[in-house]
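Input/output pair, single chain:
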Amino acid sequence: MKTPAALKIFLFRLLPKSLISRIFGYIALIPLPQSLLRGIIRWYSSKYGVINEYIVPPGGFRNLDQFFTRGLAKGSHPIEDSGAFAVSPVDARVDQLGDIRDMTIMQAKGIGYSLQQLVPSDMFRKFLWGKFITLYLSPGDYHRIHAPVSGTIAGYYNLPGTLFTVQDWMTQGLRDLFVKNERVITYIESKAGIVGVCKVGAMNVGKITLAYCDFQTNRTFRRRREVLYPPAEQTTVKAGDELGIFHLGSTVIILFQKDAIDFKDLKPGDRIRMGARIGKLRITEK
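Output:
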C-alpha cells in the first residue's frame, strides 16, 4: 500500500534534512577500495540509467563524490551555440516552462510560486513578465551545471534554506517548494539581457559548489548573501562553460527577461542534453 503524499510530506518536514544531507556529503568523500567502489558504481549506473560517456580519472574514482561529479568525455556533448541561442545547462528532464505571469512561476500543474520569493532582491524586477524553464536532474544524470548563454558573470545570490526532496510527489504536493529550498542564483549579463541560473539544492545534495569563485552551500553557519561584481571583476563565459556542480542532483531554473527568448518546441517531460538548444535569443543592440 502506497503512503499518501500528504503523509509523506508531513513526515519529511520532521527530518533534519540539512544535517542528513551534510552527513551524506561526508560519506560520499570517504575513500573506498576500488573493487567495492566499482561494484557500487555498476549497481548505481544500472539502477539509475547512467550513460557511460564520462571521464574516469587515472587509477579510477577514489570515492562516491568523484563519481557523482564526474566530467564528460570530450565530444560527447557538442554545444549548439552560434551566439544567437540559449542552450541547456544540464542533462535533465523539462519539468515546466513558459511565461512569468503576474510574478508567478509554475511549479507543477495548478501550483505556482512567487518570482520575488525566488529572487528576494531588486534583481527580481529584471525578470518581470519574462520567461522561465525548470530542469530536473535525476540521480543518474550528469551533475555539473553550465552556462546557458555567453556573456559575463555579473554576480550571484546565495539563499540558505531547507533541503526538501524535489521528486515529483513533493513538487506536486508542496507549494512554494523551490523558494523553501537552499539555492544559488548566478546572474549572467548577455546580449539578450540578464539571465538568472538558479541552482536549487535538495535532500542528499551534500553541497553546491561554484566554478567562478570559492563558494559552497550547506555549511553549518549560513547567511543570505548577494554579490554583484563591478564590470572590471566580471568573468567572461561562453555558452557551455562550467558554472558549478551539484554534489548529487537537483533542479535548475533559468530566468530570462521580457522579450529575451523564444523557446523551441519543448514540453514538460521532454529529455534534453547539456549543450542542446532550448531557444532563440532576441539580441538587444546597445
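Residues 85-281 form one domain. The mean pLDDT is 87.
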